[in-house]
User: What shape does this take?
Amino acid sequence: MDEGRREAPPATPEVVVSPRLIMVRMKASSAEEVIRHLAARLEEEGFVRPSFVEAVLERERTNPTGLPLAGDLHVAIPHADVEHVIVPALAIATLERPVAFRNMANPEEIVWTSVVIVMALNEPHGQIEMLRRLAQLFQDPERVQRVYESSSPEELIERLGLP
Amino acid sequence: MTQPKRVLVACGTAIATSTVVAKAIEEGLAARGIPVVTRQCKAAEVPALAKDFDLVVTTTPVPQDLGIPVIQTLAFLTGIGKDQVLDQIADILRKR
Assistant: This one.
């Protein structure tokens, strides 16, 4: 097995987090609607291939990505295999009203999700630093709340605290 | 020097989630004095790979009849119960 990988330097190609990929206070009535909006934005901006959106929706059906967090606000991190991605980026929406994702750990269970982060990643096991920072964010309910309350894409990016 | 324990880390696509989990396990177990080697895989690949590992840690459901312990947890993403899960993993690996 690949024992050397553990010692490899952190391969962290830049992940684009652009105001053009962020929608604050989106009005949406389903997880699919949010995913379609964000994936379309990623596609328009040239970050993903046209196949990305269906790949994400399919993955969400088979392996959902809703994460119930410690606070009142929950998140989902839809994503797909690397072949659908051209340039790594995050597309993010905060939702006026939560939509129903299913729980990553238990697909039978609904997670009412207020923040959706569609992750377009192009390297398996890469982008580690960004992913760690996201996990740190998820583990801090007050920071999740501040991100959620952002009134502009620029403010949201600042509050994300990504590298 | 004891052999590092082998932990198979599974998630849906083996891209994002398992990367976070694998790192957290390596660090958390190092802090508990247990060297581990991790490998990431998709949940669907677990049955074929499990025999070479001491433990499976997964975020998403996998079969339970693998012949090795399985821990399913979101703790490394959500922070909820993280220290307890690391202690549980350490206990299992010490016995193997």
Summary: Strands of chain A lie at 22-26, 66-67, 75-76, 89-102, 110-120. Residues 14-160 of chain A form a domain with the Mannitol-specific EII; Chain A fold (CATH 3.40.930.10). Chain A touches chain B through 35 residues (CB under 8 Å). The helical segments of chain A are 31-44, 52-62, 128-138, 141-148, 153-160.
